[in-house]
Amino acid sequence: MPCNHSLSPDYVGLHCIYCGEPVARVEAEDGQLVLRRDQRSRYVAVVQHGKQKVVRSAQVVAAALEIEFDDTDRGEEPLHQVLVAFQDPEEKLDLRA
Amino acid sequence: MAVCRTCNLDFEKLRVELSVETLSRENRIGPRGLYLHCPACGERNEIELKPYDLFVRGEKRKFYRWRGAQTKIENFDGKCRINLGAMTLSLSEKLKDDYIAGDNFSVEQICHKAVPVFRQLDGSLLAPDLPVRREYLDLVDASRPAQSDRTARGGYRFTFHLTVAEQPVEITLPAVPVRPGQTPADGVEAFDGVHLLLWPKVSYRAWRRYFLRFGYAGATAEDIFGESREAKVYAFAGRSLDENERARGWLQLDTVSPDRRTRFACVESRPEWVGVEFEDGGRGEPTGGGLWRVRPAADAYPELGETNVAVDFGTSNTCVAWDSPQRPSLLAIGSCDEVLINGASLPNRMEHPDTWPPRQGFGRSQALLPTEILTRENVDEYRKRSHKVSDWVPVLDYSIPTGGVEAAYNEMGYVIPDFKWQNMIGDAWYKNQHVELQKKYIEFLLLIVIAELVTHNAIGPSLNVKFSYPLAFDREMHDKFVSVLQETTAAVSRQTGVNVMPDLEGAAPNKFIPLDEARAAARSASTHSNDDSACLYVDIGGGSTDIALLELRGQTGRRDSYVNICSFEYAGGGLAAALAEGGCLKAGSDISHFRRKIREAGSVIELMNSDTLFSGNKRNAITNKSSYFYAYLRQFLSRLLAAHIINGALARNGGRPHAEAHPAAAAPEAPPAPTPRETYRVLLYPLGNGWGFGGFIDARYESRVFAELLTREANLILDEAITRQVVPPGVPRVEVLSQVIDEPKQAVVYGLLNKEGGESLTEQDWSWRSIVGWTTRTGPTQRAEWYRPVTGGSASAPAGAEPVTSGAILECRSDEWPAFPPRLPTPHELDRKNELTRFLARCSPSAYEQSWLLESPFHVLLEKLFKPALKELI
Asked: Whole-angstrom Cα distance, residue B441 to residue B586?
């Protein structure tokens, strides 16, 4: 059930910080990750070793985000790192090696 | 520092603005920090504020920031913001005071400006454990050690930990000036003569009821309790024994002594802290203060075997014994104080009633306590305020008088005695509350007893308590007493955590029957040989005399058997009252003072020789009154013994006198040779403190004189019985030998603890048995002879006796035998108002089925004629 807490437009959490209700989701779109909340979207590009990778799909599993790339590569990133990336003005997520 | 415990998200890295109002409204502000959900995984976390030098406290959970903290509270754009990394707490500036209590909080704000220091009796200085104000105690981390030391400049440096700060805090404070504006001669600011006591000294965590005392004894009380200064003392403890009310708080010691130098409190959990605060100049704000930590009680009661105590709840004195490992012992009463501040001993001279628990018992063994209630205020004050006895609290309202002190005030206005017997209480308001007085007394007594057992390491999780009761109690009094004991033991169980159980003495299940005092005393004193025929136990107490006549039958192969057990309200208290009311005391001495002196005196002669108690020209009167007292009692006993012999002889004649069964033959030509008579040896055991007055007459009164007189008087009666042919000439003569006991008061309690006493005795189907005592006319020609038994629970006339009609008017005629000895005023000489017939009415059967006397007429004579007459007889 959507919570009625007032969260700022640039809040990047998947859950409301006050009540824990889900308020946003992470998906893949146009080769990037998108954080959607209400009508707003924020994008980050996924980069590895300095090169952008094309994201085919993204799925939250436990406390991590599992990512599938076009080149059949797979990656996994802790959710908290993903959220930090979404609030970073550089709009990129640097994958761990 | 603010990391999700599930997914390791660092809250500080999140750029998020949190509304303090929302957090508060949704109860997201806890005592240690904020309850936030992880934005990544949704899990609930507690974000502690301590690492940010912030904390919250109070019901409204207001924020405090320590002075010097790196975390700032910034105001701009109409908002207050607190940055926790990238995360921000924000609220409208207009609401700042609603949510932020202190932006620049410091340790100085939670501490007093100065600390009181007390000089102890050994010369050492005692500063508080903490200088913290009471209202901030919740900030102190008491689980971590605190330190204090005196600086070179005479201040006190404290180092302690707070629950809301990472690092320990330190503060140096001066001592509270003893005399503001004046420097002490030795340069040391310290209050002399102060004591702070906690009662009792126990280490068992189950114990709940405690008393506190803060007071002063010495010459400079004005330093502490003067007009310009007020000392207030508080204890952090529980206020209720109710299981649902276990909350602790600050309770003030607000019961104040008349001289305002001592304060008391009763609390229902062990105090954790005691706070002392000084207010100068009537400002209402402390000018100094501190907290003293009370050592926690951490122990459980040890798993000991059964502990047994016995209580002789006498009219004048109460005595307790316990079955110590070696043997039954009297329980001496001593101080059970835990001393927190030892600047003075308790005063020994009392200018006003001191209701602290007794610190010393009376008597040689210091094992006696007066059966009296000492009130803190004059007894009239409670009546004026309708402050009922049922609401009284020990120490705050009443106590039990203590030995080892001098009472320099009129005790009469503050002592309530004799509440064991409702009819002995003079004041009508208190007479109606005599049951409550008993409850209050026994409840406090048991608390004191258990505290004393703690000092002997003799208390476990349960305690059996045996009580005795006088046979003079009627059924109603007995049942009320049982109810009192059940209620008080239950109350003390709650107060101490010990399961205190009144002991069942061989009664039906769930029925508590205490043992009567006569049998209890008889159990403990029993040393005899085959030449002895009987034991006569005479326990003269304060309110009642209890008598047991035990016939020894061991040499015949049969069990010993009680022949008589009886009790009447003719005892030492009657003589003491007669001496007091009969003008034998010096001016300024009253009955309360007299009682105290009796208790404290090692011997009666010591009392007589004291020039502070008795009028110098009253020695004869004192001796004579005492003689009369014992003489009337002896008359009863001599008749009792004679009756025993006579009834034994009558039993062989079917209850008929010898003359009827064996009509006199023609007179012989020469007088017959005297029939040899056996000697019936009776061992007299004088028990109870009421025997002590015999010392006014003769130093060997109880050890020899009384027994010799009793022998003579009993045999005179038997001789007359032979002359009148009531019994044959060969009936035994009596010889009474006194068996003096060292501590007569202990006989009852030792008897109660004696588990073996009842096994060698025949059981009887009656609760008491006495004799008529004075031949009583029960009709125009009918008589109840003096030697006939009167038995509790028996409504039928004994064999050979004439039945008594229900409602019969009873009369004791002056011409009946046996007569009193010469010079001993007879009942008829004393009955100037001709009230005897009215007094005897209670002995007359009251129902159609009853055909015998319900009570002994001689008991009536003792209680209604002889006792009141002692005051006038000289």
From this structure: 30
Nearest one of B378, B706, B353, B662 to B538, comparing CA atoms:
B706
Q: How far apart are CA B817 and CA B775, in angstroms?
A: 7
B620/B26 Cα distance (integer angstroms): 89
How far is Cα A23 from Cα A26, in angstroms, rounded to an integer? 11
Residue numbers in B near A82 (CB within 8 A): 40
Q: Which two tokens stand for residue B224?
A: 């502490």
Question: Distance from B304 to chain A by nearest Cα, in Å?
Answer: 55
Give the three-state DSSP class for A38.
coil
| Mean pLDDT, range A38-67, rounded to an integer | 90
Q: Are B52 and B164 in contact (CB under 8 A)?
A: no
Distance CA A8, CA B241 (A): 52
Say which of A8, A18, A22 has its CB closest to residue B26: A18
Contact B41 A6 (CB under 8 A): no
Q: B777: how many CB neighbours lie within 10 A of its CB?
A: 18
Asked whether the predicted pLDDT for residue B401 surpasses 50, the reply is yes
Element (H or E) spanning B607, and its range? helix B604-609
The whole-number pLDDT of residue B865 equals 94
Of B9, B17, B28, the CB nearest to A8: B17
Separation of first and last alpha carbons in chain B: 95
Which residues in chain A are contacts of B10 at CB distance < 8 A?
A: 80
Residues B31, B62: Cα–Cα separation, whole Å = 10
* B663, two tokens: 């009509």
Q: In the predicted model, what is the mean pLDDT of chain B?
A: 88
Is the Cβ–Cβ distance between B744 and B691 less than 8 Å? yes
In this prediction, residues B119-125 reach a mean pLDDT of 94
> Quick check: B859 pLDDT over 90?
yes
Residue B48 contacts residue B32 (beta carbons within 8 Å): yes
Q: Helices (DSSP H) in B7-58: which residue ranges?
A: 20-25
Of B314, B335, B405, which Cα lies nearest the Cα of B596? B405
Chain B positions in Cβ-Cβ contact with residue A5 (cut-off 8 Å): 22
Does the pTM exceed 0.95?
no
The average pLDDT across B619-648 equals 94
Q: For the residues B555-574, what does the mean pLDDT come to?
A: 83
User: In chain B, which residues have their Cβ closer than 8 Å to the Cβ of A22?
Assistant: 42
Give the integer Cα–Cα distance in Å for B409 and B747: 34
The answer to whether B112 touches B290, Cβ cutoff 8 Å, is yes
Verify whether the Cβ–Cβ distance A63 to B41 is below 8 Å: yes
Q: In what order do the strands lie in the sheet with B783-784?
A: B783-784, B776-777, B811-812
Give the tokens for residue B561.
Answer: 């058997």
Going from the C-alpha of A67 to that of each of A54, A79, B99, B124, B406, the distances in angstroms are: 10, 11, 44, 75, 93
* DSSP label at residue B94: G
Which residue spans within B739-813 are E strands per DSSP? 769-771, 776-777, 783-784, 789-791, 811-812
Q: Best residue in A11, A17, A81 to probe B by mutation, most B CBs within 10 Å? A: A17
- Which residues of A lie inside 8 Å of B (Cβ-Cβ)? 5-8, 10-22, 62-63, 78-80, 82-84, 87
**Is the pLDDT score of B513 beyond 60?**
no
B295-311 pLDDT tens trace: 999 899 999 877 899 99
Give A97→chain B minimum CA distance, Å.
19
Q: Which residue of A has its CA nearest to B25?
A: A18
- Name the amino acid, one letter, at B575: L
B444 φ/ψ angles, rounded to the nearest 5 degrees: -70, -40
Distance CA B107, CA B132 (A): 9
Say yes or no for a CB contact (<8 Å) between A13 and B28.
Answer: no
| Whether pLDDT at B228 is above 90 | no
B794 contacts B766 by C-beta, under 8 angstroms: yes
